[in-house]
Inverse folding.
């Protein structure tokens, strides 16, 4: 079973090598790696070209103008030939070399459409410094409306699901990943399971004010996602969405894991 990994880049030269190396080290061999670049002006293309021969034909890439992150992700999905698709951001890495092997084995053994797991948020310049732990759990019925959703970088889904139920909705400038998972899991009820293993380290950083703005924008967009998919949700949903994040931060800070 082939698995396609998609990475979207734009001026990503400071972190891209780490991301590519985490794909290269995977024990599972039947991987197709797709990089979709948005006309980077730094060394991103040079780095991609440096690694291209090492993949021995398993790396495909393009560099062209896009209409934002989710448009670029859609391009990658449509380029993919793998049975399963995962998305790895250009500043994220897989935790260890067995992540993809475990994903494929789990999907085959459990006979499911999608799988998801756990994630570490780490400092932008220190991958060993954990800021927050996102530990998932099995999908609860109507869980999205209670503040639950999978960590998108750990969400691996069969390509046929995209073909049947649609791609990222690019009218969402942020939170299109939330809308897509909501649509797949709660509108179309695809068969997805949780595996209790850490998969990805995700870099975070930036000003606290910028984070607050993103939280506000995110809440507006996720409320629109519920409306778009005709799924009712409480007006208190933004608070329900915030509580798990606060709890995860406290667990990380005080080592309640």
């Amino acid at each position: 079973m082939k698995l396609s990994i998609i990475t979207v880049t734009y001026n990503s030269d400071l972190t891209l090598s780490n991301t590519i190396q985490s794909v290269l080290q995977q024990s599972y061999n039947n991987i197709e790696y797709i990089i979709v670049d948005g006309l980077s002006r730094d060394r991103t293309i040079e780095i991609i070209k440096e690694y291209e021969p090492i993949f021995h034909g398993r790396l495909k890439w393009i560099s062209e103008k896009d209409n934002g992150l989710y448009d670029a992700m859609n391009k990658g999905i449509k380029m993919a030939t793998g049975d399963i698709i995962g998305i790895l951001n250009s500043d994220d890495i897989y935790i260890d070399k067995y992540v993809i092997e475990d994903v494929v084995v789990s999907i085959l053994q459990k006979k499911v459409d999608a799988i998801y797991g756990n994630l570490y948020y780490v400092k932008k310049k220190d991958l060993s410094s954990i800021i927050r732990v996102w530990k998932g759990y099995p999908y609860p019925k109507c869980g999205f409306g209670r503040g639950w959703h999978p960590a998108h970088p750990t969400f691996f889904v069969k390509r046929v699901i995209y073909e049947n139920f649609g791609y990222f909705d690019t009218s969402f400038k942020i939170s299109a990943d939330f809308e897509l998972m909501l649509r797949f899991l709660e509108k179309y009820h695809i068969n997805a399971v949780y595996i209790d293993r850490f998969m990805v380290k995700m870099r975070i950083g930036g000003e606290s004010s910028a984070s607050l703005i993103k939280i506000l924008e995110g809440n507006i967009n996720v409320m629109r996602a519920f409306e778009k998919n005709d799924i009712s949700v409480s007006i208190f949903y933004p608070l329900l969405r915030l509580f798990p994040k606060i709890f995860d931060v406290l667990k990380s800070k005080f080592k309640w894991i």
Q: What stands out?
A: Strands lie at 3-9, 31-37, 59-63, 84-87, 92-94, 114-123, 126-134, 156-158, 192-204. The chain has one domain: 3-254.
